[in-house]
Amino acid sequence: MVVDAAERSVGGWGIEYLGPDGTRLWFGVHRRGLGRKRETVMRFLVIADTRLDGAQARSQIEQYVRNPASGTVTPIGPRQLRGYPAYLEYLRALRTAVLAADPGARVTIVPEVRP
Question: Are 15 and 42 a contacting pair, CB within 8 Å?
Fold first, then answer.
């Protein structure tokens, strides 16, 4: 479900599953360029934890590329990150998929950016 929600496009942005790392799943946000060229601008993790009383997952942005036009200034907050709207759209799609599978589930989305 986590991977299926990822294979999507939002405007000129795409989200793709990059692979597992133990209980963590890596994803990338990329900008679609001309032809088949893609520029990955962000990588994030989805970490799943299954317990007897339910499951819990969280996501955090681990790597991002600064906008070359802005020089070397680090974004002040997540909204300045390139590809952030596509990342939020993925989280909303994941929430929808979880609720479709379990209408009684409690889903809270709190995006994190690793400093």
Answer: no
